[in-house]
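lol ok so funny story. i was supposed to be doing the assay writeup but got distracted and ended up predicting the structure for this chain instead. priorities right. anyway since i did it might as well share w the group, maybe its usefull for someone
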Amino acid sequence: MDEDEKDRAKRASRNKSEKKRRDQFNVLIKELSSMLPGNTRKMDKTTVLEKVIGFLQKHNEVSAQMEISHIQQDWKPSFLTNEEFTQLMLEALDGFIIAVTRDGSILYVSDSITPLLGHLPSDVMDQNLLNFLPEQEHSEVYKMLSSHELVTDSPSPGYLKSGNDLEFYCHLLRGSLNPKEFPTYEYIKFVGNFRSYNVPSFSCNGFDSALLRPCQVSLGKEVCFIATVHLATPQFLKEMCVVDEPLEEFTSRHSLEWKFLFLDHRAPPIIGYLPFEVLGTSGYDYYHIDDLELLARCHQHLMQFGKGKSCCYRFLTKGQQWIWLQSHYYITYHQWNSKPEFIVCTHSVVSYSDVRVERRQELALEDPPSEAIHPSALKVSTEPGRVSKCRHAQHQQQHLNPHPDDGTSSAASQLPQLPSSTPAAHTGSAAGSAALPAGGRQVILGPGRQDPAPSPHLSPPCFRGDFSPQD
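and the output, tada:
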């Protein structure tokens, strides 16, 4: 009897342990099935395990591919991530990343195209690259893209092969706040290579995830050209077009002549200046030359009516970037003699996309997609490098001549004690312009060729909106 009782006790203990193990196993299977996509109610344990194994295999493939394409530690500081290092490099090179199919369709473009060329990524993606080139460059660029065959004669990744590399120069259309303005082009350089990618079944925004899959040519895969595009000549002043927090604002006080009297604590993270750096300086010292005339009208309107709202304008930050602002302001009066005392301003950060919509609405224009530009509209400058800024050239002349006689200074001079000079950081290089001859020299280079000799470059855009201040 004692032995039978011991056996029953052992069996009961063993059964209890088995039941506990089965319960734990069922709980884990249930947790795995809950993480799988789709309807998992009718899945048995074997199906759940098969799907999990398949997911892990794909995950390992993606991880292996990411390790191959990962930037080595000797290329970048250890405290920077890949994304941070890539962003710093693009800013240093004045460049952006683009992915184009062999027929010229743009699959992806990075946000850094906006401060460099004035295009929003949404305007460029799903368009054809040839629509942004002058017509005389269409045939050669299309030939280089469409005639390339991906080299796959060894197991190493295709993008590490010199045979897949491509480098060439061309002109690219600059964006504008007003589509009816005379089109201008920027002289740029493409440096990249051809890769294969899985054709995504979703929108182009998922293109990155497709590139992370193993790059090997097989049925159902396409070839695209992924390149870094940078300006032939550095652009020292850029527009801060992508705003992380567009609702940011700060307050300042100005004299009636628009000199800074006060700057609150919210301003330094936005414009970079500490209060003591701007006190006593004129607000006009920090405004873009193209916006001075509009701001002068807003100032006059304020002096007449005592309050108002400014147009959207560009303000030069301490980091040498143009940030778009819009100001609400009013005049305060002395409590005893009721004389105007100073101006109180609340400045709000505005994104470039909002500015463009507002300017085009003011001009009674639609926001059309990019279209091909007729070659007769092409203008070029006579010296190589990036597009020169015509208004910044005029601005530079204001530094040399204390009594400028252009239209902007005459309009602004109607205000009391309006400053006639701006910081040297505002000025840019200047160059003349000339029409492109019919038999002009081609500026595109194929792989293995050297940089071109000085070639024609395109005239600068001159952004100007024409609208009156609002109350």
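Residues 54 and 60 are 10 Å apart (CA to CA). The chain has 13 helices and 15 strands.
back to the writeup now i swear
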